[in-house]
Amino acid sequence: MANKIKRKNDSFIRDALILCAITVILALLLAVVYNMTKTPIDNAAEEGKKAAYQSVFSEYENIDVKTDDNLTKAIEEYQPEDAGAKITEGVIVSDSEGNVIGRAFIAAAKGYGGDVTVSVGLDNDGVVTGIDIVSMNETAGLGANCTNEEFKAQYQGKAGEIAVTKSETPADNEISALSGATITSKAVTTAVNTCISFAESAESLGDSEVTPNE
User: Fold this and answer.
1) Which of the 8 DSSP states describes residue 5?
2) Number of other residues whose CB lies within 10 A of the CB of residue 52
3) Which of 74, 88, 173, 187 sits CB 3.0–4.6 Å from 111 for a disulfide?
4) Rounded to whole angstroms, how far apart are CA atoms 191 and 106?
């Protein structure tokens, strides 16, 4: 009987060691796969951001974007008027000759199906150079139409707070809401207004021209 108990104990120990070895091997494999895929994923994300920034400065064939410590800190400390809005990052934008032409931001606000994330370009005078939709989960055929060029183009050239109207003939400070998707239209506009408001604040730009980090 003692021998049987001993053999059972030995079997349990052996099985436990095998399971432990399998767990270690799987963990090592996952670590290898993570390290192999992390860099390509990060690179793709950075390229996606640059494309989003380029799209809001479409009048320029080539732009250069750089982060700035002061700008980043100001964004982190900024408290939007709309609690559901946020600016996740911002960059200094320069033309091909190195002249600072404005700033670009990625901001988000609550839409019908969740956050609508928008890239927003502002020139040195705070005028919207363009917007683009980075991500959204709005209703197909309704809110998802916020990706249409005709809708996005309404924001270009506007400065100051922008309002949403259902009228097909909006005023200078208004954009026409998407048909059947007022919530989405307001979400995009809130994200844009948050960037405009941030750019207007003394804390964000400072008293002198911001020089991007090399």
Assistant:
1) H
2) 21
3) 187
4) 9
Whether the model pTM is above 0.85: no
Contact 158, 97 (CB under 8 A): no
Residues 6+ apart with CB under 8 A from 91: 53, 65, 66, 67, 68, 71, 103, 104, 105, 212
d(CA 77, CA 62): 31
DSSP symbol at 175: E
The residues with which 66 forms a beta bridge, in sequence order, are: 92
Give the angle 71-75-79 at the CA atoms, nearest 5°. Answer: 145
Say which amino acid occupies 201: S
Going residue by residue through the chain (214 aa), what tens digit of pLDDT does each one get?
Answer: 555 555 555 676 777 778 777 888 877 777 777 666 555 544 445 556 778 888 999 888 889 999 999 999 999 999 898 888 999 999 999 998 999 999 999 999 999 999 999 999 999 999 999 999 999 999 999 999 999 999 999 999 999 999 999 999 999 999 999 999 999 999 999 999 999 999 988 545 544 344 444 4
Burial 131-159 (b: 16+ CB within 10 A, else e): bbbbebebbeebbbbbeeeebbebbeebb
